[in-house]
Amino acid sequence: MSKLNNPLTQYFHEDYPKQYQEPPGVQKEMNVIPDCGENSYIGAGKLKGRKALVTGGDSGIGRAAAIAYAREGADVALNYLPQEQADAEEVQKLIEAEGRKAVLIPGDVGEESFCKELVEKAYKELDGLDVLALVAGKQQAVEDIADLETDQLRKTFEVNVFSLYWTVKAALPYLPAGASIITTSSVQGYSPSPNLLDYAATKFAINGFTRGLAKQLAPKGIRVNSVAPGPIWTPLQISGGQPSDAIPGFGQDTPLQRAGQPVELANVYVFLASTDASYVTAQVYGITGGIELA
Ligand code: NAD
Ligand code: MG
């Protein structure tokens, strides 16, 4: 008989130690290292021969997707910021341990010219491209709109929203029928927190972009979906995504009473990329610990 786990206690469910890093934060240095499936994700050949670009692939949710993609048989190009090189190299080792190709392409997706370069490099080095897992994101909590600087407002929209247009535009000439595009939304794209006015608005925008793009690309046989995480334990949160006081009890106000771990999202990124999802497009999948997407 297989072992049955209680989801309340299946992953870390105590208070997290209070901690802060300058953004984007390095996963290696977190106290309680996020679980991205390094020791647990088992592949079943669902993405054999596929070629995936994963943004934000060094840490957190993107890392969980990248590890799972490699274990399912895909070659993977990873994008991240230069400050995250150490995290990215860990992921590279894990991908190569599966006998898959790992291509590291650091750079700022908030720049249109870099998004083009990123796609060109990924396509060339992977010798093709048929999965875009667009996971990179920026989140900085600000309590009062009076203190929300235009620089932050602009950068949050550039990284979270504009980068999707720039990356998809650059990739479309290369994406064959059967390709899959996956964006990363949030519960914030349904129910905005008062201290995330810029970030939450980008997630509403991502929902609209994803569903509209899905309809535009359906005739080409390209599916487009999104994943909407609830509170997940990642560098994003301890580098200003939450006020420091909110870190210990992070995620405990969800129905499942704990934060999620990145590995708990891996299967959905795999499913949406795979041909198992052949009739799935224009959808947003919630992985939220029970927070309703409404
Ligand atoms: P994370 O810090 O591990 O990942 C975010 C990644 O974004 C970073 O690793 C970094 O590589 C990348 N990034 C940030 N700015 C960038 C830039 N200018 N150029 C290139 N890359 C950049 O945190 P995560 O929580 O795994 O975040 C992944 C995605 O999940 C984000 O889109 C985030 O909005 C979304 N999300 C996270 C949560 C959560 O609770 N952690 C909840 C809902 C949605
Ligand atoms: Mg990171």
UniProtKB/TrEMBL annotation:
- Molecular function via GO: glucose 1-dehydrogenase [NAD(P)+] activity
Database matches in Gene3D superfamilies:
NAD(P)-binding Rossmann-like Domain
Q: What class of enzyme is it?
A: oxidoreductase
Q: What catalytic activity does the UniProt entry give for this protein? A: D-glucose + NAD(+) = D-glucono-1,5-lactone + NADH + H(+); D-glucose + NADP(+) = D-glucono-1,5-lactone + NADPH + H(+)
Origin species: Priestia megaterium
UniProt key word Repeat: no
Q: What's the EC number here?
A: 1.1.1.47
- Which named protein is this? glucose 1-dehydrogenase [NAD(P)(+)]
Provide the family line: Belongs to the short-chain dehydrogenases/reductases (SDR) family.
| Pfam families assigned | adh_short_C2
Alphabetically sorted, this entry's keywords are: Oxidoreductase
Q: Which domain of life is it from?
A: Bacteria
